[in-house]
Amino acid sequence: SQQGEEDPQALSIQEGENATMNCSYKTSINNLQWYRQNSGRGLVHLILIRSNEREKHSGRLRVTLDTSKKSSSLLITASRAADTASYFCATDDGSGGSNYKLTFGKGTLLTVNP
Amino acid sequence: KAGVTQTPRYLIKTRGQQVTLSCSPISGHRSVSWYQQTPGQGLQFLFEYFSETQRNKGNFPGRFSGRQFSNSRSEMNVSTLELGDSALYLCASSPRTGAYNEQFFGPGTRLTVL
Question: What is residue A44's DSSP assignment?
Fold first, then answer.
């Protein structure tokens, strides 16, 4: 079963608007990551947030993590048409040796209209 | 540095055949992980290799196997192909040093089973 579940499944916005995607997971984690995928291509790593962090920023990206609710959100500010892609959250299983076994959610398809 | 490369990029096989996919990690990266992506199941972890040893394994049948060579290059083999094996196969590499490192994904191999 999927560890992470993104919400919404699809999101359509206008250029310049902000986009917020949410991810929920089921078990304890060491870290949570967000990836972007353009139309059936490889995944691009966006940001990693550790379980002891609550918020992290990278450029136009802001990620929050609430371990008590087992949820995370990804905010993309001032979106651009080039941000159109699928966004996935990925988690480990919380154990030390399995940090490289990532479990992905089904993704949010973001469409940014020019 | 060159990114993760996967060959071939596209492959068409028929049921019952076997296939071998190749992944060359980023120079210096010793961990290679494989993922299967399908519209129905999403991204699922297959296995991870580090220093020529399988370190983690996902829930896939024994028809799926892999190996890693001394230069960290990895191959994945699927025997007795089924229609359901049609998918995008992604590999990811990581330095796997100390605390968790992000994984860098290749462009994927799209396998179609007829």
Answer: E
B12 φ, ψ (degrees, to nearest 5): -120, 125
pLDDT tens readout for residues A3-16: 567 888 999 999 99
CA distance A13 to A110: 8
Least confidently predicted of A108-112, B31-35, B41-45, B94-98: B94-98
Q: How buried is A82 (Cβ within 10 angstroms: 0-12 exposed, 13-18 middle, 19+ buried)?
A: exposed
Nearest residue, CB atoms, B33 vs list A42, A88, A100 = A100
The three-class DSSP label of residue B85 is: helix
- The tokens of A1 are what? 């079963």
What residues in B contact A98, CB-CB < 8 Å? Answer: 56
Give the distance from residue A15's alpha carbon to the nearest chain B alpha carbon, in angstroms.
27
> What residue has token string 């905010």?
A75
**A82 three-class SS:** helix
B110/A100 Cβ within 8 A: no
Interface test with B, best of A91, A102, A108 (most B CBs within 10 A): A102
Examine the pLDDT at A1 and tell me if it is beyond 50.
Answer: no
A-chain CB neighbours of B106 within 8 Å are 42
Tens digit of each residue's pLDDT (9 = 90 or more) over A33-70: 999 999 878 899 999 999 999 999 999 999 999 999 99
DSSP-assigned beta bridge partners for residue B76: B21, B66
